[in-house]
Write a structure and sequence with these properties.
Strand content: 5-15%
Oligomer: single chain
Helix content: 40-55%
Order of helices and strands: HEEEHHEHEHEHEHEHE
Structural class: alpha/beta
Strand order of the largest sheet: 5-4-6-7-8-9
Largest sheet: 6 strands, parallel
CATH class of the largest domain: Alpha Beta
CATH architecture of the largest domain: 3-Layer(aba) Sandwich
Radius of gyration: 23 Å
């Protein structure tokens, strides 16, 4: 550095001393941290925290402006420059059940990737409390500005909509979103995770009617995906709505329930990865 400074001085080339740094093995350049010891480009911790705050702020809103969404996607696109290829990503997107399942994976031996890292896959869990179906497209759009196209998208959502919208309209919205998703991401496998039953349906006038709607929506989405090349997970262990599978609120899952829910997702993913022609987990008898 001294020799370089001397050369610049002799040639009367100005140097901004306040911007000079080094020699060193870690250097922040254009907003990214370059680490020559580990041969990595990292996102600085302060930028990661700021990005998390932006994402959480958007997820908590029912509506955001175009300018606000552009700001978030711009930040995500910037950070994507420091991320490895995600060609074997699996995105699991859904409501608080997905959020709690993600937290529960940390207590299991297979970890957050459900043991699928040995097959070359990593899992990105995106769970949001109170999530409604109309939030799915914007979340996927934001993710695509952050990471490359995933190999698999698994969606577990729709339960929070059943008491607020007619099942025919909900089924139409789900099918339309999936149609657009599969059209725009033809190399991505789309998996529908059946809406689970609940012991308590909040704001429901008739629990049995909601359960019938749930069953109709699940059957409708499954039939649609069968015709267009998607896949489905049935979660048959929850069919009898056994109390031990649910938390005290009758909506979320107990420790055992989370284990069973995650086991089904893990087994289904293993099946669909190894046997690409399989459509349903578990198979019909």
């Amino acid at each position: 550095m001294t020799a370089f400074s001397n050369v610049c001085s002799s040639l009367e080339v100005p140097i901004a001393n306040e911007k000079r740094e080094g020699p060193c093995t870690k250097l922040e350049y254009l907003g990214l941290l370059i680490d020559s010891d580990e041969m990595l480009v990292r996102i600085p911790d302060d930028k990661i925290e700021k990005l998390k705050d932006q994402i959480n702020w958007v997820l908590e809103k029912r509506k955001v402006t175009l300018k606000e969404m552009q700001s978030l996607t711009g930040s995500l696109a910037f950070c994507a420059r420091a991320l490895p290829s995600a060609k074997n990503d699996i995105w699991i997107i859904g409501s608080s059940l997905v959020k709690k399942a993600s937290e529960h994976t940390q207590t299991r031996a297979t970890g957050i990737d459900l043991g699928l890292e040995i097959l070359g896959y990593s899992i990105v869990w995106i769970g949001h409390s109170g999530m409604l179906w109309d939030m799915v497209p914007s979340i996927i759009t934001a993710l695509l500005n952050w990471r490359p196209q995933p190999s698999i998208i698994l969606i577990h959502c729709g339960g929070n909509d059943l008491c607020n919208i007619q099942n025919g309209k909900l089924l139409y919205n789900i099918k339309d979103t999936l149609r657009q998703l599969m059209s725009s991401l033809p190399n991505t496998t789309v998996i529908w995770s059946y809406i689970l039953p609940r012991r308590i349906w909040r704001n429901a006038m008739n629990k049995k009617a909601i359960e019938r709607s749930r069953a109709r929506v699940n059957r409708g989405v499954r039939s649609y995906l069968h015709t267009v090349g998607g896949k489905a997970i049935k979660h048959t262990d929850f069919d009898d709505i056994h109390p031990t599978l649910f938390a005290d609120d009758g909506v979320h899952l107990s420790y055992i329930g989370n284990d069973i829910f995650i086991n089904a997702i893990q087994s289904a993913l293993e099946l669909f990865i190894k046997y690409t022609n399989r459509f349903l987990y578990p198979d019909e008898l």
